[in-house]
Write a structure and sequence with these properties.
Layout lengths: L1 H33 L6 H14 L2 H6 L15 H36 L12 H30 L9 H8 L1
Helix pairs in contact: 1-2, 2-5, 4-5
């Protein structure tokens, strides 16, 4: 079920990127040809960028494709590497927790107050805040499930070393 939600969030991020491209292109063309623009384009671009960046976090976490520095850890024994992966995931859970709290407070207060951006269209503020909260929540949930699964794998004697990303890139081509 979580994989379906992650896929949906990833697809929504793709739609956001396409929307960004269309919005920016349309705004540039309107400015160049008609000396006008799309009302509140800057606000819409800012909100779509939040969706494009935050929504795919859970899928990136599930695929273990976050940026990592493996220069020293690749020289360590697999057992140490596994424990460092779990430590990094736990550290990520702790680091994301304040962002979740702040996102919850911001989304709930924005929904309660009904605030909006000042501009020609008076766009509501809540969609971007809710998208941020949803994307971060699913990322945190996926990371928590990975920590539990990784600890179980280590206790069973297996290894949770991340996949070789260069090999994954070669397989995709």
């Amino acid at each position: 079920m979580l994989q379906r939600v992650e896929r949906l969030l990833l697809d929504l991020a793709v739609v956001s990127i396409l929307g960004l491209g269309l919005l920016i292109t349309g705004n540039v063309v309107l400015r160049a040809v008609f000396n006008t623009g799309i009302p509140d384009a800057i606000v819409m671009v800012r909100e779509l960028m939040v969706a494009a960046i935050i929504l795919p976090l859970a899928a990136a976490t599930a695929a273990r494709t976050h940026i990592t520095v493996e220069f020293l850890t690749k020289m360590m024994p697999l057992r140490v590497q596994d424990r460092l992966i779990v430590f990094g995931s736990i550290f990520g859970l702790v680091a994301i927790a304040p962002l979740l709290w702040a996102g919850w407070r911001e989304a709930s207060s924005t929904l309660a107050s009904g605030t909006f951006f000042f501009g020609e269209l008076s766009l509501p503020k809540w969609p971007g805040r809710v998208v941020f909260l949803v994307g971060l929540s699913f990322c945190w949930l996926r990371l928590a499930l990975m920590v539990v699964g990784d600890i179980r794998t280590i206790r069973a004697g297996g290894h949770v070393a991340p996949p070789d990303t260069t090999q994954n890139l070669m397989e995709e081509q």
